[in-house]
Structure formats: structure tokens, C-alpha cells
Amino acid sequence: MIKTYRGKLEDGDQAQIRLSTPQGKIGYKIKKFELMPPSPGAAGQESVVKIFRREQTAVDGLVDFDDSTLLAAAFGSTMTGEPSVHPQTLSVIFDSAIINQDIFVTHSEVNGSVACNYYVELEQVKLTEEEALVEIVKNLRAQP
Questions:
Q1: What is the CA radius of gyration of the chain?
Q2: CB of 11 closer than 8 Å to CB of 40
Q3: Are residues 49 and 105 in contact, defined by beta-carbon separation less than 8 angstroms?
Q4: Element at 133 (helix H, strand E)
Q5: Nearest 5°: phi and psi at 141?
Q6: What phi and psi values does residue 8 have, to the nearest 5 degrees?
Q7: Which pLDDT tens digits describe the chain residue by residue (144 residues)?
């Protein structure tokens, strides 16, 4: 089963996607992560949108793949003007980790304060008791 989540984040915003269940026996894998500007072609923007295992105390545009709480990162760039001179770029990287706790999506606009839309597809995975416990422990270890 695929679950989809979408939303619009202003610069510096953070959204919570509720995934946790009382037993933790339902897990999710990120299958797709995409960005779209709210006004395609109308304004330039450079957005960094990230998905984390835990709530972030600060939202920034830095991407650190050594951060064990980082599950996915996307960079989208659109510039106004001639498309051959200013092409759109989108880079998306996500981990194949299984998640059974809430996740958090952040947005940082590098050159201004333009909002950004995001779309996430998660594949539902049934977990054994042992797998659920491992994921819960991973989440606890990720806490500051």
C-alpha cells in the first residue's frame, strides 16, 4: 500500500507527518520525494527540503549526510528568464530506511523567502515485533 503526503512550506517552516502507531508494527519506506514551486516559471527560487526522523530545532539549507536523523534531501532550483539559460534543476536523494515513527519535513529557501510544495510517497511495510523494536530504538538514539 502506498500513502501520499503533500504540503506547502514557507521558508523556515517544518511539517510533521504522523506515522507512529501504538504497536509500531507498520513501517514505511520513502518511494518518491518531489518538489514543485508554487508559481512555476513566475519567480526564481532555490529550495532545500529535507525529511528527518525527529523534529528540528532550527531549519537551514545545509545538507549533512553524516546526520543519522536525515532521511531525505531535495534541492530544487528555478530561475526566471530563458529556459536554455536558466534550466530547472532538481536533485533528490533518499535513504531506503524503514520508518515507524513520525517524520518531519523542513524547507529553507536559499535566496529569499519563497514557499515550496513537496510530495512524498511512502510504501507501507508490515514489521515483526523485533523489527518494530529496532526502529523505535533507532529513533530514540537519534534524539538529542
A1: 16
A2: no
A3: yes
A4: helix 129-141
A5: -65, -25
A6: -125, 130
A7: 999 999 999 999 999 999 988 878 899 999 999 998 887 766 678 899 999 999 999 999 999 999 989 999 999 887 766 554 455 667 888 888 888 889 999 999 987 788 999 999 999 999 888 888 787 777 666 655
User: How far apart (Å, rounded) are the C-alpha atoms in residues 83 and 105?
Assistant: 29
Buried residues in 29-66 as b, exposed as e (16+ CB within 10 A)? bbeebebbbeeeeeeebbbbbbbbbeeeeebebeeeee
pTM of the predicted model over 0.90:
no
Residue listed under C-alpha cell 529535507: 50
